[in-house]
Each structure stands twice: as C-alpha cells, then as structure tokens.
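Translate structure to sequence.
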C-alpha cells in the first residue's frame, strides 16, 4: 500500500496576533472547525502569526482547537503587522487566502463557507466582510464611557457565545471603516479574501507602512485590490468580524487623539502613494452573498432608510427618497382636483400605516384615473394588505370611515351612505 498523499487545503486564513492572550484564543475558536459551518476541517487551514508577543502566544491555545492550525512566531518583530501578514501569505497553501490583520476579531460561523464561494464568483473577486465593534458604541467612545474587558465578557455571556455566533450582531456597533457598509463605500475589510494570484499581483501588504498597528496598510491593500482592472467587490451580507477591546494601537486609541493619529497615517500614505487616502472608486456595484440574520437585517434596513449623513455621498435610495411614502422621487400632483384630493387621502393613510384603507382608496382612484401613477405605486407596496375579507376587525370602523370620505369627495352619495 502506498503512502497516503495529504491533500492541500483550498482555503488559507492568515491571522496576526500581538499581546492579546484574552482575545486571540476566542478569535481562533471562532475560526475552528467546531464553530465554522458548511466547511470541513481538512478544507482549510489557519496560519497564526505571532508578531513578537511578550510573552509568546501559547501553543497550547491552538492545540486544543479542532482544525488545521499552524503557529509562526516573528521575533524580533517590527511594530507593524505588514511583515507578519506577508510571512503568512508565503506560508499559505490554499488557492484562496484570507487575511485578518487583527487577531482580536471574532467572526461569524459562515465566514469561511461564504468567503470561499465569493472568491469563485469572478476571476478577480475581492471578498470583504464588514467590521463591527463589540459593545453598543464606537469602541473608543465606549471605553471613554467605562467599557472594559469585564463588561465585554458579560455581553458575550449574555448571548451564550459561542453557541450561536450570529448573535454577535445583537451586541455590536459598526466600526468607522464600515459605517452603513452594505450600501455605502467601505475603507477596508478586516477579513479580506482573494485568490492567491491576486495577492501575488498586489505583492501582499506594503511593508513601508511601518507604524504600530500598520496605519493605513490594511486600507491600502483593500484599495489597491479593488482598483485592479476587472476587480469585483463581493460583500458578505450576514458574515462579519467583531472587534474585542484589547488596547489596540488604532481601534482603542483615545477619542481625542484619533484625528492627529489619522493625520499622521495619511501623511505616511501620501509619502508612499503620492496622494491622500480615499475609499476605492468601484467600477461596478458590489455583489452581495449570504444571508441576513435578524439583528443584522435591522441594521441593514436602517442603513437604507436612515443612512449616516456623510457630506458628498448620495444616500442609498437617492437624494429625494421620502421615507414616509417610500417614494424615490416626488410624484406629480394630479391635474383633476378631485383625483388630487383622493391621492392625498391615500397618502395620508399610508403615512399613518393604515394600509388597508390606503389600498382601497388607491383602487378607487385607479378605476377613475387609470393613467395616474401615484396610486398604482402605492398599491405596488401595500396592495397585498387588503384581502377579500377586508381589514381585521380592529381596523374595520376606520376603514369604512375613510372609504366614506373618499366617496364624499367623489360625490357618490349612495356609496357614501353605505359606508357610514
């Protein structure tokens, strides 16, 4: 019998750790075969690069995990994680490689499954996850308000982590680089997946970003990848990374010092790239992949309807979106005064979430003015609310009262009398 030939994994994940004995073991657990779903242990590897931790990261933390883990130590190590990432890239065996510059980030259970599929959607797919902080505020502000590791531990216990990793969305806040990131530009991905050949084209991380934490090294790699000819951004809908508090050089710096720190990083970026850092200018809209757990869905809806106001950026639903009427643009007022009054009545019912009566009035208008678009637009949104049986009992009196008003406006006295 011949020797068994070991099959190389088709996915590699490079994770950099530095002085995070509390946080890194949890991050690696979230990457383990016991936690990740829809992917077998022999299909991927995790390369943990210890970037000079003191004391060194404990090998025993890896030995107790299920899956294919390797630990590499750099000692002495530079203050930036860029070299550590490149060392991990050189060691990776998979055809798809993911990079996590910060080993203090928990991940969701479908991350590796969806990242692997996302990287195969296009020849130059750039698969990005959105970044979140654990806790109920931007982490620097939360720390300023007393947030600490013990409080974070309590939050994780409250959601029974790690039994359901998607509950992390319940105790998290989007970070600065991913604000409303499903529907708005993002500045980086804290779990970034690409095919091996793309990492080679990029040359990995640029080690000239040598400040503690790497400065804009991660954003630079993301921008260079997204700017490649033929690049297609794939955003994972319901998979994400969640930053644990650990005193990071950037993520947990004092709020007051962040503007000066960002200015220093941008100055270095300008010296290296010859321009100021900016988000990638995507040639095509992102492709979305995956599912949206309920807590993430709530944030997604808010990001669409009530996006964070960023100057110069058009809102996802356009500059004229009316969230009371769910209208993308202002509608023309009907020329006929009676029809105009009926449309106003239907709109007022829509605004009040009285959708059965709004639908009924809109149908009356459609019968009498089939070319008017606004009542038909309303019906496309709420027509299914009004069944053949009419509204539920608790709204029936209001429904008939509104229809009575509609018939009054039309001057149809017999129909008016039947409603009242």
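Result:
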């Amino acid at each position: 019998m011949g020797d068994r030939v070991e099959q190389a994994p088709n996915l590699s994940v490079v994770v950099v750790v530095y002085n995070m004995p509390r946080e890194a073991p949890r991050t690696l657990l979230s990457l383990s075969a016991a936690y990740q779903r829809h992917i077998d242990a022999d299909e991927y590897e995790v390369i943990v690069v210890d970037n000079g931790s003191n004391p060194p990261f404990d090998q025993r933390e890896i030995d107790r995990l299920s899956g294919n883990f390797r630990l590499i130590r750099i000692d002495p190590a530079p203050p930036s994680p860029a070299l550590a990432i490149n060392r991990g890239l050189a060691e990776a065996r998979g055809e798809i490689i993911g990079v996590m510059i910060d080993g203090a980030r928990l991940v969701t259970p479908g991350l590796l499954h969806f990242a692997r599929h996302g990287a195969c959607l296009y020849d130059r797919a750039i698969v990005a996850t959105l970044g979140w902080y654990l806790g109920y505020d931007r982490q620097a502000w939360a720390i300023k308000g007393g947030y600490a590791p013990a409080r974070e531990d309590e939050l994780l216990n409250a959601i029974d982590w790690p039994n359901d990793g998607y509950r992390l969305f319940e105790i998290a806040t989007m970070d600065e680089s991913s604000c409303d990131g499903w529907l708005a530009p993002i500045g980086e991905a804290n779990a970034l997946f690409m095919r091996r050949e793309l990492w080679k084209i990029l040359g990995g991380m640029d080690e000239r970003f040598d400040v503690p934490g790497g400065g804009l090294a991660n954003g630079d790699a993301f921008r260079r990848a997204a700017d490649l000819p033929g690049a297609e951004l794939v955003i994972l809908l319901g998979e994400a990374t969640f930053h644990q508090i650990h005193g990071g050089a950037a993520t947990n710096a004092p709020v007051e010092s962040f503007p000066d720190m960002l200015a220093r990083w941008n100055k270095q970026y300008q010296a290296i790239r010859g321009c100021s850092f900016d988000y990638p200018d995507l040639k095509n809209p992102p492709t979305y992949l995956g599912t949206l757990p309920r807590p993430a869905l709530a944030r997604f809806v808010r990001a669409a309807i009530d996006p964070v106001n960023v100057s110069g950026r058009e809102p996802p639903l356009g500059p004229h979106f009316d969230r009371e009427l769910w209208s993308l643009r202002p509608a023309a007022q009907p020329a006929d005064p009676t029809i105009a009054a009926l449309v106003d009545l239907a709109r007022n019912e829509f605004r009040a979430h009285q959708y059965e009566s709004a639908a009924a009035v809109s149908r009356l208008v459609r019968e009498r003015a089939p070319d008017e678009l606004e009542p038909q637009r309303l019906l496309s949104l709420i027509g299914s609310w009004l069944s053949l049986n009419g509204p539920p009992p608790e709204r029936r009196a209001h429904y008939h009262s509104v229809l009575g008003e509609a018939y009054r406006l039309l001057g149809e006295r017999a129909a008016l009398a039947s409603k009242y």
